[in-house]
Write a structure and sequence with these properties.
The chain has about 625 residues and is an alpha+beta fold. The chain is about 20% helix and about 25% strand. The strands form seven sheets. The chain has an eight-stranded parallel sheet. A six-stranded antiparallel sheet has the order 12-13-14-19-16-17. Strands 20, 22, 25, 27, 30 and 32 form a six-stranded antiparallel sheet that branches. The structure holds alpha-D-galactopyranose (GLA).
Length: about 625
């Protein structure tokens, strides 16, 4: 009897799994990536946190706003002025309305300390031609309440009055902030759903009510991924209701937890891929790594966010210009938001020149929205290539280490023809150089060279999908069990060596990749290597925005690096929801099959790779070799 019940339960579970799987693999004919809000290109601006922490005021905010305008940074694109943690006085219990610290924001006291409004403040920012950002938390309470700074501001009043987060108030607060007060940008932090377990000191002491955590540090196994996603999705719904003109920016801040690196692309405009950045080189490496391997998970409307820029402090101050230039160039080329955090009122010229480098800003703001792809990747040196709307490439050569590094940049890295002239324009010193096939650089420790490269394309009549990750959305990436990502620089967190060290974290390992397998291997089908292509797991569906191509082609098969060798996989191409082409079932060790489809007039192409694998521990690794759109 017991066995029968177990078998029936297992059968039910399997049926449910394959139904859910069938759903996400069914072509829809429509793009499912997030495209609401005002993030056609990554947002640019300034945030109060890195300089002022919770000690913010209207004076400081408006002073920086004026400095942005006066310095010319605003006209170069730095338009958002974002108020981070620390603005709140308390929540009025009678009607749940949030109240502002009027001693710090005098213009908010429209009806004394009881009737407060940020409208006069946002009006001032708007009159300067700027945009206004505000900050809140998903839970009842904020990060500063869980981690109070010795001299920092905290909300006042009873336990209920100090519940200043969105939990239970999402619709009311979003209406107040975005509609009534006129903010344009909102950052939603997540300490409230992590740091208020009953066993925490500030809860045990009665200072705060408990809220059952949905995330537990970066422990992916314990996180309630669906629960976190739902809370953020509810915020998105409220934003759309309050800002039907789409003039909002929705910033998700759950630091890479809850597998957010996989789903934020469908839910918000920018999403933190890692813990907070600090003014520390090694920490910058770690945050950079958390975003650099995710080019397929970003597109116009939704960007990976490795955190605000730390220019001006510590290892990125005016005494560390090599590091400061690297930090800026790297953030720019991976389409990270360019949000300054230094005191712009007293910004040294050398740093102004870095943040104000219009050629590098233009790389970040390129309308094609392709995040750079790693064309060469090693622990000490990386080459990143980003395809621009013009068809030219931006290329960054990054020496991560402490030794001088010789670097060969090849036409192959750029997907340019080996026999044509390639012109490089250095975006720091504006010098031009020319080469064929390959050229050599000597790169100083921690230096990043950044160029625009112009030359004849290797693929004369089309484009590889791995060159245009901004037009590819992994609607289903085949990952069934999120795994921590071992490929990140493991930085000693928060300056301490207590405990046993830094671990792989943030999940996302095994996700869809450009020009590499999901587990970081060269793409190979039966011994045939591909330096261009998309690497995925089976039971995946990619959405590809077509813009005028007539043909699709790829060489497809099970990748040699697969751990599962048992499952034959079928590759299918759909156009606006209709089947256009299908491979024979491809087995491990069989040569790649050429797959072509006529996509003339098609708006959305979908690439679906399926096999009969149940939810097993080791999925099948597959390759869309040379996947390309043709004229
Ligand atoms: C968290 C966020 C930071 C900042 C602080 C404010 O740590 O990750 O970016 O907003 O909270 O308390």
């Amino acid at each position: 009897m017991a066995n029968f019940r177990l078998a029936a339960f297992a059968a039910g579970l399997l049926a449910a799994t394959s139904l859910a799987q069938a759903d996400e693999l069914t072509p829809t004919g429509s793009w499912s990536g997030y495209s609401k809000g005002a993030a056609a290109t990554p947002p640019m601006g300034w945030s109060s946190w890195n300089t002022f922490a919770t000690n913010i005021s209207e004076d400081k905010m408006l002073g920086v706003a004026q400095a942005l305008v006066k310095s010319g940074l605003a006209s170069k694109g730095y338009r958002y002025v974002n108020m981070d943690d620390g603005w709140w006085a308390k929540r009025r219990v009678s009607d749940g309305r949030m109240q502002i610290r009027t001693n710090q924001f005098p213009s908010a006291a429209v009806g004394g300390t009881e009737e407060t409004s940020f409208k006069p403040y946002t009006d001032k920012l708007h009159a300067l031609g700027l945009k206004a950002g505000i900050y809140t938390d998903l839970g009842h309470n904020s990060c500063s309440q869980a981690y109070p700074a010795p001299d920092g501001w905290l909300p006042q009043g009873s336990v209920d009055e100090r519940e200043i987060g969105l939990y239970g108030h999402t619709d009311q607060d979003i209406k107040l902030y975005m509609h009534d007060w006129g903010f344009d940008y909102i950052k939603i932090d997540a300490c409230g759903i992590r740091d208020y377990a009953p066993n925490r000191d500030h809860v045990k002491s009665g200072q705060y009510h408990t809220l059952a955590p949905l995330i537990f540090g970066w422990d992916i196994g314990r996180a309630d991924i669906a629960g976190v996603r739902k809370l953020y999705t509810d915020v998105g719904t409220a934003l759309l209701r309050e800002k039907p003109d789409n003039d909002f920016l929705f910033s998700i801040c759950v630091w890479g937890a809850a597998d957010v690196r996989s789903w934020a692309k469908d839910v918000g405009n920018i999403s933190r891929t890692s813990d907070d950045l600090g003014p520390i080189w090694n920490r910058m490496l770690s945050n950079f790594d958390s975003a650099v391997t995710r080019p397929l998970y970003a597109h116009p409307g939704s960007w990976n966010d490795p955190d605000m820029l730390y220019l001006g402090y510590g290892e990125f101050d005016e005494n560390h210009l090599t590091e400061a230039r690297s930090h800026f160039a790297l953030w720019a080329i991976i389409n990270a938001p360019l949000i300054l955090g230094n005191d712009v009122r007293s910004m040294p010229k050398a740093l102004m020149d870095i943040a104000g480098n219009q050629d590098i800003i233009a790389i970040n703001q390129d309308p094609a929205g392709n995040q750079a792809v790693l064309a060469y990747d090693a622990n000490n040196v990386q080459i990143l290539v980003k395809t621009l709307a013009s068809g030219k490439k931006a290329v960054a050569i990054f020496n991560r280490g402490l030794g001088t590094q010789d670097v060969d940049l090849t036409a192959q890295h750029l997907k340019f023809a080996e026999d044509g002239d390639i012109v490089l324009t250095d975006l720091w010193n504006k010098q031009q150089t020319k080469f064929k096939k390959e050229t050599k650089f000597t790169v100083a420790p921690r230096q990043t060279l950044i160029f625009v490269a112009d030359g004849p394309r290797r693929l004369k009549n089309g484009v590889y999908l791995s060159e245009i990750p901004g037009r590819v959305n992994p609607a289903a990436d085949g990952v069934k069990t999120p795994q921590p990502d071992p490929m990140l620089f493991r930085y000693q967190t928060w300056g301490s060596t207590r405990g046993n060290g830094a671990h792989p974290q943030y999940a996302g390992w095994g996700g869809a990749q450009a020009d590499i397998s999901p587990y970081g291997q060269t793409l190979n089908i039966a011994g045939q290597p591909f330096d261009a292509g998309l690497g995925l797991l089976a039971n995946s569906r990619l959405e590809v925005r077509n813009s005028g191509a007539n043909g699709f082609a790829a060489e497809v098969g099970v990748d040699d690096s697969t751990l599962d060798k048992s499952q034959p996989t079928t590759f299918a191409v759909y156009g606006d929801g209709k089947l256009l082409a299908k491979s024979t079932p491809r087995r491990y060790g069989e040569k790649a099959e050429a797959l072509t489809a006529n996509v003339k007039g098609v708006k959305l192409i979908e690439l679906v790779a399926t096999n009969a694998a149940p939810a097993i521990a080791q999925p099948t690794v597959i390759t869309w070799g040379n996947a390309r759109l043709l004229q």
